[in-house]
Amino acid sequence: MLGGAMYTTIKTLWERGHNKSEIARMVGHDWKTVAKVIKKVENGEEVPSKKPHPKLLNPYREMILELMGKGFKGLKVYEHLRASGIRVGYSTVKDYISQIKKREDIFIRVHTDPGEEAQVDFGYGGYIPSKDGKRQKTWIFNMRLSYSRLDYFERVNNQRVETFIECHINAFRYFGGVPRYVKLDNLKAAILEASFYEPVYQRLYKNFSDYYGFSPQPCRVRHPNDKGKVESGIKYVKNNFFLGRQFKDAEDVDRQLRNWQEKVCNNRIHGTTRKIPREVFESKEKGDLKNLPLEEFKLPRVGSRTVYHDCHVFIDYSYYSVPFEYVGKEVDIEVGQNLIRIYYQNKQIAVHSKAGERGEFKTDYSHYPKYKMYSSTEYQEKYQVEMSKLGRYAEQLFFLILERQPRDWSRTVQGILSLSRYYTSDIINMSCRRALAYNVHQYGIIKNICHNGSYNLPIEFNWEEAV
């Protein structure tokens, strides 16, 4: 059944002179369907309109609005309606709430408890002079406690994830505790955004959040009220602190920023709460923050390396092994205080203690293929067994090869074994018999004997008795 919009489209195209086949291609419908519409148009029939469907939940609209005003999400609203005896499905409730928000642009104010949440943002702060007379880019980190609105600001000169985490550590130290949740903005700073969502950095931030005992919560896209508190913080520091101020250098920015943060920012009457953030924090929120860990998080260095053909990666002038199957692949590394951790696609594949000096190899021999781990005797025994499976003459030839080529016997033996892809064991074994009779052992000769069938020819003397 075509909707009114499609009828109108087909009618318009037909009146503009397009034929039925052209219209069918343009609107993506079957030619016969288009023909039926055109027939109705020519007969003067009205374009069908969508019949209005009464909303099942319209009678309960005020109740739903009241629940939404209390901060109830879709599932909570659904549970409340069901408890009130209203028979309705969860998807219906969710769609109805979505339509209310879309149609009326209802803003649900998010309230948080003391110590529950901090919001974090990272904004561009413009250029400031450096000591060498040049100008350098500046970014501003802001963490704001959602209940008291107490702010922590920090100037940084790069967008690295490690710097972002160090700012968190400094903010927690400033607050004297840790909130239960940290809500992250969508990291508009380009470099930070590009790297933060790579697995190695996600893992680093997750390890950090686990250590401090908070849960990170990325803000939802297109939900501005999720991050309104901290976005207003970045806007505030730009307009109230940076705007119109003069700075000698980065250190001067830091001094003035600390002074402004304490005397102005955190001691003003906040525009929304109409309370002073510092007073609210000291009286109602400080005691609800989680305790800081006894020791600060030791931030490891992270990066990536390509695995060499010898199953090692090069880190800080030393070498660390990884399993052989990752040769040629790019792996992630994490350099801690005492350990080197190596990951592939977010899975840890190796861990080593840090080398004590440059040029040292830290090798786990289980990372090599098994055949690389044989002693020379075990290696020979392995191939002797394989040759014996072809027959007793092949096994005898193995010993002759070993005698004639003590240093590079394995290639010849591997070549002979590879003939089993084309010939039966009997053919290879009889070819080895003929080679032994004429005291030859080269792979090429054995291959030719198999190929030309001379293994069937009689041997002119009884060489077996001679030996």
If you had to describe this structure to a student in words, what would you say it looks like?
There is one protein chain. This protein has 467 residues and is of the alpha/beta class. It folds into five domains: 4-42; 58-104; 117-288, 2-Layer Sandwich (Nucleotidyltransferase, domain 5), CATH 3.30.420; 301-371, no CATH class; 374-466, no CATH class. The protein is 44% helix and 16% strand. The protein contains 18 helices and twelve strands. The protein has a five-stranded mixed β-sheet, sandwiched between helices. A four-stranded antiparallel β-sheet has the order 6-9-10-11, covered by helices on one side. Helix 1 packs across helix 3 (31-42), helix 2 crosses helix 3 (31-42) and helix 14 (392-404) crosses helix 16. The radius of gyration is 38 Å and the shape is flat. It starts with a helix and ends with a helix. Residues 220-230 have low confidence and may be disordered.
Radius of gyration: 38 Å
How much helicity do the residues have? Answer: 40-55%
CATH domain class name of the largest domain: Alpha Beta
According to CATH, the homologous superfamily of the largest domain is Ribonuclease H-like superfamily/Ribonuclease H
